[in-house]
Design a protein that fits this description.
globular, eight-stranded mixed β-sheet, Rossmann fold, binds NADP nicotinamide-adenine-dinucleotide phosphate, alpha/beta
Length: about 220
């Protein structure tokens, strides 16, 4: 698969090597060219602009800070709607770390829903926001020998693509529902982020221990 990445930070550095190893072609788009090129070289990817990454990817990882969400999606999608019809996997978290409150948008929506609003027609999925970058660097991400289960919420077509990319990292997808459920995934992550800020191990996680892929449809119970 061709994967475009929007953002050249810690999450990109943690997630991309696993996808490169699985045989995917990755182009990282960043707003700071030198930093983006250095990172791409370290992880075995190509580098380009945000727009080039959006155009390149069949799937696009959105890995930017909340403050950069709108600017990034405008630069990536542009008036031609380069992200329309593509899977966009948002790993971001919307938290005000001054008091660990959740940042929401008009109507109480999540960062992922805001991404869907800013990238009309994109198949947006929330994933990978639940754990620190150090968890995503693990090959595979596993706890006590059990593969890490990764909750996903979003567009049905997008979730099919996200499942493949999660499985390629050696983790297990866990279907948490449609994109409105991203509100809860973003809220849950704040519990972990607060622990990390108070000095807990970066590998602190909600350890989902479902029965495996056959039991993925937790929402139907
Ligand atoms: N780090 C973690 O452990 C972790 C875990 C789960 C989820 N997340 C979430 O994943 C997302 C990416 O995290 P990260 O740790 O990779 O972040 P990061 O290293 O701080 O930066 C990611 C990217 O965001 C861009 N950016 C920052 N502020 C911006 C702004 N105001 N306008 C435009 N672009 C801006 C940066 O651009 P430059 O390249 O120009 O600096 C960088 O490319 C965040 O939403 C974060 O909450 C992080």
């Amino acid at each position: 698969m061709k994967i475009g990445v929007l953002g050249a930070g810690m999450m990109t550095e943690a997630l991309v090597p696993g996808w490169v190893r699985a045989g995917h072609e990755v182009l990282i788009g960043g707003r700071t060219p030198g930093k983006t090129e250095d990172l791409a070289q370290r992880v075995g990817a190509k580098a380009g602009t945000l727009r080039e990454a959006a155009e390149f990817g069949d799937a696009v990882l959105l890995a930017v800070l909340l403050a950069g969400l709108e600017e990034t999606l405008r630069a990536a999608g542009g008036p031609e709607g380069a992200l329309a019809g593509k899977t966009v996997i948002d790993c971001g978290n919307a938290v005000d770390v001054s008091d660990f409150s959740q940042v929401t948008f008009a109507g109480g929506t999540s960062m992922a829903e805001e991404a869907a609003r800013l990238a009309p027609g994109a198949h947006v999925v929330k994933a990978f926001n639940q754990a620190h970058a150090d968890v995503w660097r693990m090959r595979p991400p596993a706890f006590d020998g059990r593969p890490f289960a990764v909750p996903i919420a979003g567009h049905e077509t997008g979730k099919t693509v996200a499942r493949e990319l999660i499985t390629d990292l050696g983790a297990e997808p866990l279907d948490a529902g449609d994109l409105t459920q991203a509100r809860h995934l973003e809220a849950m992550a704040i519990v972990v982020i607060r622990l990390l800020f108070s000095g807990h191990d970066p590998l602190s996680v909600f350890a989902f221990t479902g029965p495996g892929r056959t039991g993925e449809a937790a929402t139907s119970r």
